[in-house]
Predict the 3D structure of the following.
Amino acid sequence: LVKMGGPRTFRPSLCMLLLAAAAQSLQLPLALSLSPPPSQHLPAFVSSPVSDVFTIRRHGRMPPALCSPRGPPQRANGLRTAAMSADPKDGEQDKSLLKKAVNAWNSLFQPSFQVSVPVAIFSWLVGSVALTGAVFVALVYLVPEPEITEPSSSVVEDVALFEHILRDIDSGYVEKVSTEQLFETGVRAMLGSLDPYTEFENNKAAENLQIQTFGTYGGVGLGLSEDWKIGSDGRERETKSFRVMNALEGYAYDAGLRTGDHIFQVDDVKLEGKTIADVTSLLRGKPGSDVRVAFYRDGVEKPGEIILHRDQVHINDVALAMRIGPWADSIGYIQLKGFAADAGREVKNALLQLKESSTDGKLKAVVLDLRGNPGGLLTSAVDVAEQFVPRGSVIVTTKGRDGPVWSYTSQRDPVLDPSTRVIVLTDRRTASAAEIVAGAIQDHDRGLIVGEKTFGKGLVQQVAHLPYDTSLKFTVAKYYTPSGRCIQSVQYREGGELGSLDGSKASEGKSYVSREVKDGERKTFKTSKGRLVRDGGGVEPDLMIPAPSQSEIELQLVEQGAYLNFASKWAVEHPDLINEKLIWQDNDIVTPQVFDEFVRYISDKKESGFELRTRFDGAIRELSEAVSLGGFPKLKTELDGLQDLAHSELLIHIMEHRDLISQRIEDALRARCEPETVRIAHALRHDQYVSKATEIAMNPRAYDSFLSEGVAIAPATQDHKTILGKKQLSASARRANGHYM
């Protein structure tokens, strides 16, 4: 058709030709006909007028090979297509030409049945290829184009203006600038005026987001941080090596690396002067390849070398699943740290394994630990909740600005027996997808929430993949628990200035305006059994357990790495720890003598590099300098004494928070010789949340008393779940929904 000078838009015609050619080569009774077909004979996917199906224009000539009349013309009763002339004056001539073309087509592509086997095989192969091409072209043509909304004129003007500004700065600014950095700064400032969750992800951040979303990456299973050493005047950065912060079980840990090891070479590359990003690039790579790592370990004189095997590293969301309490009580414990793509499957497998470990194949109670869980995929939250709530239960509902209301409903029977008591542990860091699970369990009265009020993030983000391996994460909806409440604790508004009249304020480093939802604005809802719950401030626990207050000294110990540094020193002085002779021991390593040794260590700045600080040291220092310049020496002396007094009180706080600090030291020491799951299991023995949850789980009467308040009520008939065209999502459909929280 192209050689004949035919129309440029001939994809329907090409589809017909390819189908016909394939049919003829497969010896099917299909041919072209000049007869106009009735509408009912048109293929189902053809919606255009008959004249648009197959057109040969009057100009051009038929190839000589298509003009020899041969073959049976009577077999033309299958595929029918119309041929229309573009010029009425030349209708007869076009009809004659077209008739010759059709006859030639039928004669060429309808061979006699008296053919040799090779010819038949060749004909069949040609037909198969042609049929595949026909189907492909038909799909490409018939799949509708996505409907794209034209941007408003103001958006077009703003984009053009931004481009002009960027070009002018790039070409005319007095110093050479990075347009990439300028672009990211501008985009981040723009998105920063909306809310803290709407972000532009460059290629590196987008890669990390992918890891967080799917929980897998190609690497060796190591967590690293910049290393440092203690100099004569305190802490100094050491850029020659990088400290192992975590070695994942099944990967780097099994290969022999431990928390606290210092890596100074990867393959033949010395790490002096390298950044974390540089080392990450060296260690990650194609699964199946190997990388050589050189390191030294505290307490061992000579450096070591180890071969790490790169693999598809899977970061488990279920950090620990075990039995707790008396064995006969069959109480399971699951610690869930995130909501990546496989979170639902991991929780299900953990529950099944815990059930199998009991004598009768049932669990009397399950403790689901969501403390510190920042959330993840909305669909994974639904998958996890399905393991607990009854089939057909609404788990969460989302509503955007203009879109429909989506209701996510459990599509399968829960793994747990309805008689199994469920206790969910939460704290102030339990957020997003974790709050969806907690809210669904609470609203359906399927279990108790124990601990602290959750973070209060009731917003849903969606990730849009952009060119150049970048992405945009932006807020698209709010979500509602089954009772109808939105637990968002902070309201955000675009732009604004510090100190608005309504009590809102601009966040530090951002230009959006935030305002916490006040108690008087919170609405009351009811669970399935009529218990009262409220919106606007996170998920409130059924049993409140205040978290231990964290003092200033504890924050400083963590921030300055005092626990890890003391563990390095202690490991040098106690080779039994290095030889892993303490592994699997139930007794605590940190005795009163070890604790006193830790206090002496951090008190010696030259040895530890630890510096006593308070959050108001900077303010006192500035005031002291101003007073000195103003000529008030006595007042300056008083201010210096005030700072010394604050530092001495910090040391007193160490003794007041001795138990919690001892647990931190214990974990840092055990990290040198034990895998993470063993350390977590050991720490549960001192966990007051777990102790209280175990106590309730062992007492059915106390458990039932929390759920017996009120009576079940009929659901409202006109609420956000039943109007605006609510849609139920099947399991497969919701997995295709790419919402990220």
In short: The first helix runs from residue 11 to 25. The first strand starts at residue 199 and ends at 201.
